[in-house]
Amino acid sequence: MRPVSEETQLRLQHGGPPGGRDVLAEGRDGALLGYARVETDGEAAAELVVAPAARGTGVGTALLAHVEQVAGDRPLSVWAHGDLPAATALAQRRGYRRARVLLQMRRDLAGVDPEPHPALPEDVQVLPFRPGRDEQAWLRVNARAFAWHPEQGRWTPDDLAVREAEPWFDPAGFLLAWRGDPDDGGTLLGFHWTKVHPPGDAGEDAVGEIYVLAVDPDAQGLRLGRALTDLGLAHLRGRGLGEVLLYTEEDNVAAVALYERTGFRRFSVDVSWRRDSSRS
């Protein structure tokens, strides 16, 4: 399991919007014992990690106390990667409640049809993403499809550009469903953006990911979600991968049930702990 989220890794590499802060906990010898990232644009959000050898020594408590100082009177949400008893005890001791649970689910790709022929409406075609041409259309549909989501629905052109510059980015695995000609008034209806984690990143071998999958609210009922899923999984199997992962909110009961029916199993859990204010 990764110690911090992809978003935090990207901000460590490339920087982020004003208001973010990195917090380090070091030993007397200068060894890194823990790390936290705090964002204070609006409500405060953070994640923190403690080196395994330093756990149980008060490092997590000290980091969280510093994060709370940075957040001030703002409501604060803190992600804990893995549902570990020590993290639960620390959060509850400091007055946090369990607010969100993010599931990582996985399935093998052995049973995936390598050449699916999904039934698409006559005027709909699925094409690879074209860097430099499709960004605005994608951002629009992403914002509409994830208007309810506190992170995904707020992506900016910079968020997209940072990922397009990453070594893992592959336009061939970024599938867009268009009604009509995208260069002549066509409308983007949905997309399936896949990702490949290199060996050692999400497992001993390379692992695929359903990175972002969505359908525009106006295109619901066209069965595009299933068609895009099948095409994306086939792409990942064609890359020679044996396993695929995805992330979904635990309380999205319909989505979790759908994924379980299609062979996904629960693999790991991340928990967001929330405290409404420093005075609560």
Automatic annotation (TrEMBL):
SUPFAM superfamilies: Acyl-CoA N-acyltransferases (Nat). It is an enzyme of class 2 (transferase). It comes from Petropleomorpha daqingensis. Belongs to the acetyltransferase family. MshD subfamily. Keywords: Acyltransferase, Repeat, Transferase. This is Mycothiol acetyltransferase. GO terms for molecular function: mycothiol synthase activity. Catalyzes the transfer of acetyl from acetyl-CoA to desacetylmycothiol (Cys-GlcN-Ins) to form mycothiol. It holds the Pfam family Acetyltransf_7. Monomer. The lineage of its organism: Bacteria, Bacillati, Actinomycetota, Actinomycetes, Geodermatophilales. PROSITE patterns: GNAT. The gene is mshD. Acetyl-CoA 2 binds at residues 213-215. Its EC number is 2.3.1.189. GO terms for biological process: mycothiol biosynthetic process.
